[in-house]
Each structure stands twice: as structure tokens, then as C-alpha cells.
Recover the amino acids of this structure.
């Protein structure tokens, strides 16, 4: 009997990578072991393509991945190998930066736009101070095709108005710990149905295990068959508004919490029991 395809769709920072140091060396062998078992691992991050490619190079493998909060699925042809010979390398759901900025300028009041300071327009020293990155890592973080980072210097009411005007024009503004991000309307669940559809010719539907640690991962986790929540040091545990039937909470932060949750989720699916 053919084994059903299992797919791990995982956030990186604070989920698979350590929250503060972005380390994963302690679980590298475990990740490679999952790949050797035929499990598809798809990083799904707000990171840029070059940032995720750097992670894959450090891991030592080429993986399909989703970058910039659901803007593009890269190396989709690897995922579809043997199933769809016509699958392109990149499948794009996002809006180009040029188009984003054109819509932004037309849709958002000039007074509100004046409160936005775009990161790519800053001096390198200021970019490093805000993002905590320098050198090649900073260059990779700024190599954005479908999103733009900025700081908002207005008050909360002004921020809400700006977000509403952007939304009315089909854009989205996400506020993170360091900066805000302007993009099209896509999120980390955008490619869920597409990825499942790649395996639709198979006799049994694939099983998707999602991994995340923050609010930005809620859509990813709620679209999975099993949601693995990795705790963040010093932060409340993430709650899901519409969770799948199986939710596993890792007992430790990343990276060790990721592998503990992965093993528990895989065992739960194999046994048909919740963990």
C-alpha cells in the first residue's frame, strides 16, 4: 500500500530557527532525516527569497519555499517532480514593488504617507540599527520583490486610517516587532490549496503539518491538518481562532521545540490519535 504524502509547511524565525540567534544546527540532522523519509519540507516565511535560499544553503539542500508572506512559491517544480512536468519554478501570487508603490501613492492620503519612512530609503547604518542585520544578511533582507518595509511615525488612529485606505485599494499592511510591511492581499495560507492540488492525482490526499509561533502564522496553522505551535520566550502562547482537529503545542522554544512537535505530529497522524 502506497504511503500518503506528508508535507511540513513551516515558519522559520522563532519556529524552526532559534528566536534570538536563528540557530538550527542542533536539529539539522533531524530535518535531513525527515527529508530522507520522503517528507516534503516547505519553509513559509516573511523572509525574502535570497534569505530563504541562504537558509537552504546552510542546511545543505534545495527546498521548495514560500517567501514574503505568501507572495511566491519558489522551486515549485521540485515539489511537483514526477507529478506535473509543466510546473514552473516560480508561482507568483504577489504584486510587484513598483505596482505596490503606485497603488499606495494613489490610495493613501499624503499626510499619512508622510508618517511612513521606508527602510530601503535609509542609510545603511540606520537600516542595520532597525533590522539588526548588516552586510550580506541586510542585503538579502532588502531584496524584496513583492513587499516593502517601513516605519510608521504617526499615532494609532492615523495608523488605522492608513491601513483602511490601503485595504480599500487591495493592499495589506502588517505590523511586526521592528517594522511594518506593505504588500498585496496574500498570507501564509495562500498556496495551501495549490500545494495540496499538486498531489491530487495521488490515491490519498496529502497530509499537511503546519508550524508557527506568532500571529503572522495563524493562517498557515489554521489551514493545516495538524497545527504545531512553538512557544516564544517571554510571550503568551499563540491561540488559533479556527484550529484544525489536531493542535500540538511544543514544550520548548525553537529549534528543539520544532523537532519535538514534528515527531509528535507525525506520530499522531500515523496512529490516528490526537497528541
Amino acid at each position: 500500500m502506497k504511503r500518503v504524502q506528508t508535507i511540513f509547511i513551516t515558519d522559520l524565525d522563532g519556529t524552526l530557527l532559534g528566536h534570538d540567534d536563528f540557530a538550527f544546527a542542533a536539529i539539522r540532522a533531524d530535518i535531513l532525516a525527515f527529508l530522507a523519509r520522503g517528507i516534503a519540507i516547505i519553509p513559509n516565511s516573511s523572509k525574502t527569497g535570497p534569505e530563504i535560499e541562504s537558509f537552504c544553503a546552510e542546511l545543505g539542500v534545495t527546498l521548495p519555499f514560500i517567501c514574503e508572506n505568501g507572495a511566491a512559491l519558489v522551486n515549485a517544480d521540485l515539489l511537483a517532480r514526477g507529478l506535473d512536468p509543466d510546473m514552473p519554478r516560480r508561482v507568483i501570487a504577489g504584486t510587484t514593488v513598483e505596482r505596490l508603490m503606485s497603488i499606495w501613492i494613489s490610495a493613501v492620503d499624503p499626510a499619512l504617507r508622510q508618517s511612513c519612512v521606508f527602510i530601503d530609503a535609509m542609510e545603511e547604518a540606520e537600516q542595520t540599527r532597525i533590522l539588526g542585520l548588516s552586510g550580506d544578511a541586510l542585503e538579502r533582507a532588502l531584496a524584496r520583490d513583492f513587499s516593502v518595509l517601513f516605519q510608521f511615525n504617526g499615532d494609532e488612529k492615523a495608523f488605522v486610517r492608513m491601513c483602511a485606505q490601503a485595504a480599500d485599494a487591495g493592499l495589506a499592511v502588517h505590523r511586526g516587532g521592528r517594522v511594518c510591511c506593505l504588500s498585496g492581499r496574500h498570507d501564509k495560507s495562500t498556496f495551501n490549496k495549490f500545494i495540496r492540488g499538486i498531489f491530487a492525482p495521488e490515491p490519498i490526499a496529502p497530509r499537511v503539518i503546519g508550524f508557527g509561533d506568532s500571529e503572522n502564522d495563524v493562517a498557515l496553522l489554521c489551514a493545516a491538518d495538524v497545527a504545531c505551535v512553538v512557544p516564544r520566550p517571554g510571550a503568551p502562547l499563540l491561540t488559533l481562532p479556527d484550529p484544525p482537529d489536531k493542535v500540538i503545542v511544543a514544550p520548548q522554544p525553537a529549534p528543539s521545540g520544532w523537532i519535538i512537535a514534528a515527531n509528535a505530529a507525525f506520530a499522531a497522524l500515523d496512529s490516528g490519535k490526537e497528541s
About this structure: DSSP finds eleven helices and twelve strands in the chain. The longest helix spans residues 256-271. The chain has a mean pLDDT of 93.
